[in-house]
Amino acid sequence: xxxTVGVTPSAAxxxxxxxxxVYDEVFTDTAIGRAQxxxxxxxxxxxxxMGNRILELNCGTGEDAGFLAAxxxxxxxxxxSAVMIEVAKQRANKEGWSTAAQFHRIANEDxxxxxxxxxxxxxxxxxxxxxxxxxxxxxxxxxxxLVRAGGRVLLCVWGRVCVAEILWYLLQGxxxxxxRRLSGKSTATVGGTRIAVFYPTVRELQQAFSPWFQLxxxxxxxxxxxxxxxxxxxxxxPTVLARLEALDATFAQWPILRGAGDHVLLEFTRCR
Length: 272
Known about the structure:
This protein is α/β, with parallel strands linked by helices. The protein is built from eleven helices and ten strands.
């Protein structure tokens, strides 16, 4: 089942329309992409038991929706990119999990138009979709109207401070890129389109969600596992990557370190 809501595309939607056909090749199926996603998947299964109805924001090509659907969860998958939604639908039909998913072309900023989907057991956003949103409080408010009391929300966003990125670019002699996240905002070129990118701190995320949600847990994603632009340097060294992934498993929840990864994964509980 699918629906189209909010048909005026944003710059981010246009950008991801342009890269949808190759997105899995350049991110999902990379060694680093897989290593980081495994960390998120472990938390998804722990957070959302079998039988849960879950909302996915910025679903992309449906990789996470398919993972959950194959394991007994039902997913309402949303994305602002019409082409991403089409790719996800084709994947669902091909892989046989279309009956466990609904698809909506809708931006994170327009989630209020999904009121007919609630109440849901929880929601999640994986890999930085929310970093394209300037004002997060309205998103949180709309999620509060969709997620039942006691339901949980997982958010995986780019962190403000990424130690691996700072070290990588300093070693490359690119000091400006090394500190590009620290101001809290930047730009990125995706598929030839320039889009704004924001790097909220954990405190800023907590404040945006606090009227309705309580932050109960967080960890780094990609603390030692580097960002995906290091893929060419590490893809032929699976043993090294496996060791970095093991270090993440050990240290990603340590105070201070849990906020220093490529991404930070936060768990909120719907409190009222």
